[in-house]
């Protein structure tokens, strides 16, 4: 089976990879010095790091070791999120995760959990002076007949690589090094959404370590309430140590890379809106990544030099395609902001034009890398959860939605507040206009949300109430709400 994939955008390259270093003190004491100052280590973290290093010494890394930087910096995508844990715990088995959670609980230590490290803001997947549980070594993969068991230490390229010899693929990430766990626990936008739903809709089983260290397996028939809540419920319920995902016979895919210059933008946006509205009974699995990169220094000079339209068609495997789409870690400081709306190409174009004008107002920010990204929810992608007998926490109606997003990169910490405020104010301003026009949606995709956004506010209220009830059943002590406070928390 060949499936068409479409990459459409105004720019595809030009990203730069800038490494930054983080230094920390060599031993655990009551304080530690970091590149950004001295951190006091709370009693809880000190207790947990000491106990972890006594009970599982090979799995604990302290500041000063070479592997400490690997785990706390090299795995992280957004440079803003480089933090300095008191120790890093790198479990080799689910049993070790369970033991660690018990110790953390006993010590009442603050902790963070990291999978692929792509959630892009400080605290989402890292922590200052607490315990970082880094899942890198839980990287087993087991291909079964029509499913694959994957550990949370894997990225999507590794999963696609394991499936390729069997001519199979799964619904995962579109870029190479995005992690399996974060994307799967928050949704999962992929080219096949219109046919198979989101990554979360394709999980048949989760192995979870709960807040008291108990290990459970959640499926449609066992802990079915937890099974539902994990389909978009993020890191509020436990640490997932194994996912079992559905796979599909997809030996090859048809791919197209299309590049346009700015004069074609209205048609480009119109085509995206029409794609979002497509609502076939039995759709062919197909999707796209649509981005517009604005070079604020040269304006669109780069693009006007290229032919009005360039198109590269290919037939390849999903592994090879993903390999070409890398998103290097430590790329830049970056702020995501986005909102959703009903498809309306004219309004989308006016948002784009206003965004471009607003970019010019911060053109003096060093290393400014502004990108306008568009994703969409198609009716058939929402139908999967409506009809599969399980559902997911999003509870979306079978209606098309356009998600317009600003991804803004920059170089220096001194510009953090300025760019973050700029991005937020702009998104809220356009959203308020869309509200007046009656085309705004409150759906926010956690994977692309800024830290200032509340994805749960866009879920049906009854789903949020149900999630909170499930949380109180599985984590009555609030280990994943208070001790692990990073990421998008369900709140009270
Ligand atoms: C360049 C780029 C491209 C992207 N492309 C896509 C895309 O194509 N499709 C899409 O849907 N999204 C995409 N995203 C968004 C992406 O889904 C999120 O960033 C997601 O969080 C990445 O997962 P991760 O494992 O790498 O992240 P992490 O930052 O490691 O984890 C994300 C959150 O999940 C928690 N977590 C991690 N592992 C576990 C676990 N085992 N159990 C419980 N909680 C856990 C972490 O504590 C954290 O709060 C992209 C993001 C970036 C930066």
Determine the N-to-C terminus distance: 47 Å
Briefly, what CATH class of the largest domain? Alpha Beta
CATH architecture of the largest domain: 3-Layer(aba) Sandwich
Taking all Cα atoms into account, the compactness measure Rg is: 22 Å
Into which percentage range does the β-strand content fall? 15-25%
Distinct ligands, ions and cofactors found in the model: flavin-adenine dinucleotide
Describe what this molecule looks like in 3D.
By secondary structure, the chain is α+β, with helices and mostly antiparallel strands. 31% of the residues lie in helices and 23% in strands. It has helices at residues 43-55, 66-74, 94-107, 156-163, 180-186, 193-196, 224-229, 265-277, 301-304, 318-324, 345-360, 379-387, 416-437, 461-474, 479-483, and strands at residues 2-9, 31-34, 37-40, 60-61, 87-89, 111-114, 131-134, 141-143, 147-150, 168-169, 203-209, 215-218, 239-246, 248-249, 252-260, 288-293, 309-316, 333-341, 369-377, 401-410, 440-441. Strands 17-15-1-16-19-20-18-21 form an eight-stranded mixed β-sheet. It has a five-stranded antiparallel β-sheet with strand order 8-9-13-11-12. A hairpin with a 3-residue loop joins β8 and β9. α1 packs antiparallel against α3 (94-107) and α8 (265-277) packs across α11 (345-360). The protein starts with a strand and ends in a 9-residue tail after the last helix. It binds flavin-adenine dinucleotide. Flavin-adenine dinucleotide binds next to β6, α5 and β13.
Question: Layout of helices and strands, plus pairs?
Answer:
Blueprint lengths: L1 E8 L21 E4 L2 E4 L2 H13 L4 E2 L4 H9 L12 E3 L4 H14 L3 E4 L16 E4 L6 E3 L3 E4 L5 H8 L4 E2 L10 H7 L6 H4 L6 E7 L5 E4 L5 H6 L9 E8 L1 E2 L2 E9 L4 H13 L10 E6 L7 H4 L4 E8 L1 H7 L8 E9 L3 H16 L8 E9 L1 H9 L13 E10 L5 H22 L2 E2 L19 H14 L4 H5 L9
Helix pairs in contact: 1-3, 4-10, 8-11
The structure holds flavin-adenine dinucleotide.
